[in-house]
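Sequence of Methyltransferase family protein (Amycolatopsis cihanbeyliensis).
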Amino acid sequence: MLPSPNIWYHPDAYELENRVQDADQAIWRVLRRECDWAGKDVLDIGCGDGFHLARFAETARSVVGVEPHGPLVERAARRVAAVSGVTVRRGTAARLPLSPASVDLVHARTAYFFGPGCGPGLRAAERALRRGGTLAIVDLDVGRGPYGDWMRADLPGYDPAAVDRFFAEAGFRCLRVDTRWRFPDRKAVETVLRIEFSAPVAERAIAQVLRMNQKACGELVLPVGYRVLLRPKRAGPRRLRS
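Predicted 3D structure, token representation.
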């Protein structure tokens, strides 16, 4: 199990981060166009405190959130307690607590599937999908600045091109999505970026966002690139790299 120090240790700050991300709903539009879940069964891997579950539940037949971290499982369960058709279970991406061929969409957003090494999770997701279902992985595009520049400063061994090759060889189609993070004020910028980066990189990032918005009144905007990786489940066995 891989820890997520941002949401595990700073869940309230991460709640703010979820709210500022994708202010124009660009990722949601791509997902709905490519793998509409209306009337279908959805699995959200690494659901955290359940931020996205109710959104899927608006049109899905059922939604299951799977999260490895106990305190987040509890938060997610409280969040969706009154939402019909949604359940939250504790489990990992590599050991999903679901029956084979039980869902039509497996969604994972900035959770676990970061390239080489995630083969066990890919195989588990494939088992959980029904034929014709889709695995959709939403991840930050680390090759795109300025956010990707800050990530690479903290992760000098991360090779965006190698990650792209890994997913391409595993049969994924990659869609690049431009989004905007919209912060209500400077304090929100500082709160979010300080849970995402080391102290020196966070200070550099905060300063850059403030420079980008020096003529803005009120809200501050940060352009952030994402990759939406899509792979349908087809008939027959699929060889997955580890």
